[in-house]
Amino acid sequence: MPAVSQKQQKFFGIVRAIQKGEMAPTTPETAKAAADMKKKDVKDFASTKHKGLPDKKGVKEAYYGGEERRKKDERKAAYEKQLKKMLPKRAFDQMGREIDPRSGKLKVQEKIDYADTKQMKKFADEKKKFTKSDQRMKFGKFYDKAKQAKDRLRPGEVKKLVDGKWVSNKD
């Protein structure tokens, strides 16, 4: 019976050397195998050529529901992965509330605990992360121009300084 992997062949090579007396047992597993197995069986395993053998034999794990169920789950996982690539990361309804991009349902908002520093740090990080992309969604490529236009005077507009604030006649 030939070895099914290179590691198995190497293991039985060590066991064969122990049986011949060329080497002392290195581990309890090799000593037990050398004592329990026939010399002929060990020789068959040890004499297998490495060419074409995998380095290590992959273990097939039992799958709950059988092979058909495993294949179905793999196809479903591949579909989900592809769908995740195609859908946007965030989506909003007309009111500006965040919705689930896949189902279109409103996302449940977390209750804010202002005393929880971890949660507040998470919110601050998210705000920082999405600020730039949200501005780009609002104004497109021309965010800087929109910002400048907001400060410019409109036709017929006059601004006066009243109580330390600039007040427009168009407001």
Q: Counting H and I runs of at least 4 residues, what is the number of helices?
A: 6
Helix content: 40-55%
> Structurally, how many domains make up the residues?
3
The parts where pLDDT drops under 50 for at least 5 residues are: none
Shape: elongated
Radius of gyration: 35 Å
| Beta-strand residue fraction | 5-15%
Element string (H = helix, E = strand): HHHHEEHHEE
Number of strands: 4
Main sheet, how many strands, which sense, barrel?
2 strands, antiparallel
Strand order of the largest sheet: 1-2
Q: Could you characterize what this model shows?
A:
The chain has a two-stranded antiparallel sheet. The protein has six helices and four strands, in the order H-H-H-H-E-E-H-H-E-E. Helix 1 (6-20) crosses helix 2 (28-36) and helix 1 (6-20) crosses helix 3. It folds into three domains: 1-59, no CATH class; 60-109, no CATH class; 113-171, no CATH class. The protein has 171 residues and is mainly alpha-helical.
Question: What's this entry about, in short?
Answer:
By secondary structure, the protein is mainly α. It is built from 6 helices and 4 strands; from the N terminus they run H-H-H-H-E-E-H-H-E-E.
